[in-house]
């Protein structure tokens, strides 16, 4: 098991992005594709989590969006995040939250029924760091526990920037081209912070290397999320209560039985057991 004498350093660019440049607290409620991600994440987690009041460690839980509904469902949720703004927001919302890093958890071994990694794998560009985060999650899980780890799809930026028409810009076009080849959005590039974009096969393989069994990978938003984004972006109409939103949700559910459609989802959720 990997341990470090000092807490790992989170890239200053990532802290700055979520402190000054982006409001993660509204990401899943301010747009139709965000709402689709939230609804689908909820239904997938509720399908796999043990009954409440199981203990949940929400690693990289941000401002507490998921911790709040899980607590309302009766779970005992503990949240950690490396961004002080997120921890403050989560605490103000009533969450048990503290600063922490996915690669060096302070929790005792075999102490949680569930570990959520719904954000950390996005921002760990090096495989060794992602494997360390997954290994730490496995360490703190009870033997019959459940890991749920989210990743951004390798192809999400292609769909997103087409929907917003930004793919027409040379700078964005070149960044997307590099992501498709390498999976990396390197530090210093504009438009997003440092990030890693997984393939479904790569995500499953990393969980397997970290010692997780019975790994299942789901497409969260399904193959039509970018249609929602494009329509909402170019009409100015909020679509969360629309027939189009309901159709996109139905499409995400239908797509589960067809692994070839995983690549079209914006985010993926991998579920496994230690």
Structural class: alpha/beta
State the helical fraction: 40-55%
The overall strand count is: 9
The largest sheet, given as strand count, sense and whether it forms a barrel, is: 9 strands, mixed
Q: For the CA atoms, what is the radius of gyration?
A: 18 Å
Tally of helical segments: 10
Run of helices and strands: HHEHEHEEHEHHEEHEHHE
Q: What does the overall shape look like?
A: globular
Mean pLDDT, as a whole number? 95
How would you summarize this macromolecular structure in one to three sentences?
This protein has 274 residues and is of the alpha/beta class. It has helices spanning 12-21, 32-48, 65-72, 84-92, 127-140, 156-163, 170-182, 200-209, 225-235, 243-255, and strands at residues 55-59, 76-81, 96-99, 112-117, 141-153, 184-185, 195-198, 213-219, 267-273.
Tell me about this structure.
The chain has 274 residues and is an alpha/beta fold. It has ten helices and nine strands. The protein has helices at residues 12-21, 32-48, 65-72, 84-92, 127-140, 156-163, 170-182, 200-209, 225-235, 243-255; strands at residues 55-59, 76-81, 96-99, 112-117, 141-153, 184-185, 195-198, 213-219, 267-273. Strands 1, 2, 3, 4, 5, 6, 7, 8 and 9 form a nine-stranded mixed sheet that branches. Helix 3 (65-72) links the parallel strand 1 (55-59) and strand 2. The protein is globular and about 50 Å long. The two termini are 14 Å apart. Residues 1-6 have low confidence and may be disordered.
């Amino acid at each position: 098991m990997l341990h470090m004498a000092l807490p790992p350093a989170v890239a200053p660019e990532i802290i700055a992005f979520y402190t000054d440049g982006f409001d993660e607290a509204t990401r899943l409620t301010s747009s139709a594709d965000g709402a689709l991600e939230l609804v689908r994440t909820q239904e997938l987690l509720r399908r796999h989590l043990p009954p409440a009041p199981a203990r949940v460690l929400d690693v990289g839980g941000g401002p507490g969006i998921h911790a709040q509904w899980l607590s309302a469902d009766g779970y005992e949720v503990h949240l950690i995040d490396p961004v002080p703004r997120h921890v403050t927001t989560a605490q103000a919302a009533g969450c048990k939250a503290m600063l922490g890093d996915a690669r060096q958890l302070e929790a005792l071994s075999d102490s949680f029924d569930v570990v959520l990694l719904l954000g950390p794998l996005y921002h760990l560009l090096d495989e060794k760091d992602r494997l360390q985060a997954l290994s730490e999650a496995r360490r703190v899980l009870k033997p019959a526990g459940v890991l749920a780890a989210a990743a951004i799809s390798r192809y999400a930026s292609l769909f997103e920037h087409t929907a917003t028409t930004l793919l027409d810009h040379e700078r964005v076009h070149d960044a997307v081209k590099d992501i498709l080849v390498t999976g990396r959005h390197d530090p210093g590039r504009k438009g997003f912070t440092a990030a890693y974009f997984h393939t479904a096969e790569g995500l499953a393989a990393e969980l397997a290397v970290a010692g997780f069994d019975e790994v299942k990978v789901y497409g969260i938003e399904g193959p039509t999320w970018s249609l929602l984004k494009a329509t909402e972006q170019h009409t100015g109409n909020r679509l969360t209560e629309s027939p189009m939103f309901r159709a996109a949700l139905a499409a995400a559910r239908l797509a589960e039985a067809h692994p070839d459609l995983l690549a079209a989802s914006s985010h993926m959720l991998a579920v496994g057991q230690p």
